Prior knowledge:
Subcellular location: Cell membrane
Shape: elongated
CATH topology: Nucleotidyltransferase, domain 5
Helix content: 25-40%
Radius of gyration: 24 Å
GO molecular function: transmembrane transporter activity
CATH architecture: 2-Layer Sandwich
Membrane topology: Single-pass membrane protein; Single-pass type II membrane protein
Keywords: Cell membrane, Membrane, Protein transport, Transmembrane, Transmembrane helix, Transport
Number of domains: 1
Strand order of the largest sheet: 4-3-2-5-6
CATH class: Alpha Beta
Family: Belongs to the ExbD/TolR family.
Amino acid sequence: MINGQSDHNGELKSEMNIVPMIDVLLVLLIVFMIASPQISSSVEVNLPQTSIEQKQVEQNQSSVVVVTLDKTDGIFLTNTALGILDEPKDPKHLVLELAAIKNVQPESEVFLKADKETSYKKVMFGLELIKSSGFEDVNLVSEVRE
């Protein structure tokens, strides 16, 4: 045969060549490894400014859980280790999901981001939801005043 491989009986072999497929998969893996740290929150939140130095929120760390409250009273959850990226949640489902994360990743740190126009009552409600899910420590996120 000119273009096909044949065995000793003259029949064509119909084997799949998987080397190009593996090459493509490895390239995709490298692209996602490079791009995943670049993924940031898509929820627009104007954080309040303070003069207090605080921990930086690294949303791409596996042990970080971010609860975001926007100015339209939306609640969003982010945990990149479990593939949760800015998913909108109602209060009941937020508590259930945080409790599940606490069981799977007990060493997780929780950060609460709230828009500066969010009322104090809503921020305290967010804290209450997080605490009721089993997390004791909650980090409040703000921007450093320049």
